[in-house]
Amino acid sequence: MGRERRLHMSGDLVKMIEAKIAQKFKRQYAKLTSVEIMVLAFLRKRLVSLKAAA
């Protein structure tokens, strides 16, 4: 029972952290155009695939 409670609490913590990251992301990238956002997303995918291949 105690372990379930800890897992639940850690899930809440993760959600709180993700919400803070999302807020920061929105502030940083609010001024970008949709094309700039698509380019960043493409570059991120490429970076991930290159890291996976290495």
How would you describe this protein?
This protein is mainly α and 54 residues long. It has one domain (2-53). Helix content is 89%, strand content 0%. The termini are far apart. One of its GO terms (molecular function) is isomerase activity. This is Topoisomerase IB.
Q: Give the biggest sheet.
A: none
Q: Which stretches are low in confidence, meaning pLDDT under 50 for 5 or more residues running?
A: none
What overall form do the CA principal axes indicate?
A: flat
DSSP strand (E) fraction? under 5%
Per-chain topology:
Elements (H helix, E strand, L loop, with lengths): L1 H28 L4 H20 L1
Brief description of this entry?
The chain has 54 residues and is mainly α. The chain has two helices and no strands.
Quick tags:
mainly alpha; Topoisomerase IB; 0% strand; isomerase
